[in-house]
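wait is this the right file?? whatever heres the structure
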């Protein structure tokens, strides 16, 4: 399912039956043989907008997950391995950030950086850093107390080498699962911020923006909201199931 969604997004220019911004039929035309998913309130083909919207939504969510992962993994490794004052400083800073609801924190960052899909992805990613860092820190704390870490240190291995060769390989599995689940949260948060009007301009074929536009005709044309809503729900469900499968597959190896 996830692979299919990704391929549809990549091939949208060739698979879409019409220009996502073109007025191709009378407004609120229901699903038919000519327009499989119907037409929105302005006369634009919903299937075309759905395919192109996947590129915007999934691209922004992937960027947000990357932004959350890179500093989150680095901070978690540093805090978990070195402990002491560095661990206290990083952990207290993460606690301060975690005190704010994730979506509210993202809203604040967007308010400071300005509207736009890139800023929404940036805000969503920064809001997800603490969760990644805390999970990685916990795994790093457990790993650094293992006997082979002490043996490597006794043999003269330096801290960067120990982190790279011994700590990170044992933390990578958990980090991969957390990053996968972060992707699901990122899709929801990016769409939520776009729904609130903080993402791309109205009219842009992005799933959250499409849901925003569908509010005004929800009773007359429920399919306009149903199309992006189901796409979001199924995609997030697939990402979460993938994260669960990765956790089950990697748990025996870590044990």
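ok assuming it is, sequence goes like this
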């Amino acid at each position: 399912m996830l692979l299919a969604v990704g391929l549809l997004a990549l091939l949208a220019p060739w698979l879409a039956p019409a220009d996502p911004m073109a007025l191709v039929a009378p407004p609120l035309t229901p699903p038919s043989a000519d327009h499989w998913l119907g037409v929105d309130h302005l006369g634009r083909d919903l299937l075309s907008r759905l395919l192109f919207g996947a590129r915007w939504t999934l691209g922004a969510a992937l960027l947000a997950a990357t932004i959350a992962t890179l500093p989150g993994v680095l901070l978690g490794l540093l805090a978990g391995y070195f402990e002491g004052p560095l661990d206290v400083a990083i952990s207290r800073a993460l606690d301060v950030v975690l005190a704010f609801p994730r979506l509210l924190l993202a809203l604040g960052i967007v308010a400071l950086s300005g509207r736009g899909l890139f800023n929404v992805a940036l805000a969503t990613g920064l809001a997800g850093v603490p969760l990644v860092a805390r999970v990685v820190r916990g795994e790093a704390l457990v790993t650094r107390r293992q006997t082979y870490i002490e043996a490597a240190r006794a043999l003269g291995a330096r801290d960067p080498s120990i982190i790279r060769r011994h700590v990170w390989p044992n933390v990578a599995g958990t980090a991969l699962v957390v990053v996968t689940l972060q992707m699901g949260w990122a899709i929801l948060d990016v769409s939520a911020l776009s729904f609130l009007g903080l993402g791309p301009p109205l009219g842009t074929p992005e799933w959250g923006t499409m849901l925003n536009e569908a509010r005004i005709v929800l009773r007359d044309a429920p399919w306009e909201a149903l199309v992006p809503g189901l796409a979001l729900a199924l995609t997030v469900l697939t990402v979460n199931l993938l994260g669960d499968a990765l956790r089950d597959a990697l748990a025996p190896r870590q044990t």
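The chain has one domain: 41-254. so i think its the right one actually
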